[in-house]
Amino acid sequence: MRNYDVIITGARVAGATLAWHLAKSGFRVLLLDKASFPSDTLSTHNFLTHSMVMLEEMGVLEALLHTGTPPYKRAVIQFDDAVIDGCFPEVEGYSDCLCIRRHTLDEIMFRHTASQPNVTAIESFRVTGLLREGIDGAVSGVEGVRGNGERLRFRAKLVVGADGRQSKIRELAGGSTLISVPTDFASYVGYYADYKQEGEPHTELYKLGDKLGIVFPTGDNLHVVGVMFPLTDSHWRARFLASPSEAMQEIVRDGYAGTPLARRLGTARLSGQVRGLLGYTNDWHQGMGEGWALVGDALSFKDPAVGQGMPDAMYSAKLLVEVLNEYAGRWEVNWQRMAEAYQQKVEDKMMSRFRMACQFTKNVPFTPQERFVNALVAASPGATSAFLGIYNHAVEPEQFQAVVAKLLQEQGA
């Protein structure tokens, strides 16, 4: 039985990031994934400017840019009648954003991390159980099966679940769910060719009545288009279950009439299949216990409309490494302190956007005051920049609120 410092289950964005940083810190890492790369997955895959900094740090940004995925700077957001149009603020010298498809993104990150000294990587390995030891039953490793049927066990001082929102590691470890906010929406996504945006490439976000829509320029000369509608809408539920591709065109034509989305999708061609989820929950979980920890969606899954999944996956990985480095050589006697430190770090960094996602995920129309504020923001370049800065961590929510308060004061409201 082979021994490591850390075993990571899940080798996509969160797991690959964690393994890379651990290896750079001198830890011996075993990186496992049930998939064999390249491998697609249903997920958002958008990196805003602050994420580009982290991708450059890992040494994968150049390879990602060479895939031909078009970078973008601009966002056009339509909240009912208000259109907020501007560029994401620069972060540490980076002004571009990138929405790279998962089968490309995950393979590049996995192969790059797997090539690092101190990293052993195994694809097509499905974890079936956790190993435990001692009176307290601390996690001490994993057992599972390879694609060829070979059963193996591995030991480590720490096992990390980077295995998504339905994390097997979290389930086996008995991690607690601290916050759970169910969405009011179904969410469907498809990739389209010949989706023609005027001017420079940009992201689009729509909140019109009881429907949400998102668009990103991505690789292979495609745009990824997502729509969300209330789970209580039996008509659209039935249509999407019966014929997702036709339903996508119909809901955009009917629910987004008069918008650029309706015009552009009307002449676009679907590439592949329309896929989706009939509901999900915005979850925040316990991040660490004795011998185990969580990163990425396994730690916190949030509504895709706020576009925080990829950066939060990388943030949580880096924050966990900070804690592990601080207590290096003393993990076994400091699990409680480490768990508290990690939980505090991720809450400080990620909780405000999680709360924002919990608001987005509810089917609540804009109030008259919110519509008034949306119009003010749309008319102010400074407020537009501050609003977009919330998404890429260039501006904190309370800073944006101060900008809004100033606008209201100037309007005598």
Give your account of this protein's structure.
This protein starts with a strand and ends with a helix. It has helices at residues 13-24, 49-58, 61-65, 102-114, 168-173, 234-242, 244-255, 260-266, 309-326, 335-360, 368-379, 381-391, 397-410, and strands at residues 2-9, 29-32, 46-47, 74-79, 82-87, 98-99, 119-122, 125-133, 138-146, 151-161, 177-182, 185-193, 202-208, 211-218, 222-230, 269-277, 281-285, 288-289, 292-294, 300-301. Strands 1, 2, 7, 8, 9, 10, 18 and 19 form an eight-stranded mixed beta sheet that branches. A seven-stranded mixed beta sheet has the order 5-4-13-14-15-12-16, sandwiched between helices. With 413 residues, the chain is an alpha+beta fold. The protein is built from 13 helices and 20 strands. It is globular, with a radius of gyration of 22 Å.
Structural class designation: alpha+beta
What would you report as the Rg, rounded to the nearest angstrom? 22 Å
Distance between the termini: 69 Å
Tally of individual helices: 13
- Number of separate strands: 20
Helical content class: 25-40%
Per the principal axes of the C-alpha atoms, what is the gross shape?
globular
Poorly predicted spans:
none
What's the main sheet like? 8 strands, mixed
**Percent range for β-strand residues:** 25-35%
From the structure above, extract its key features.
alpha+beta; 413 residues
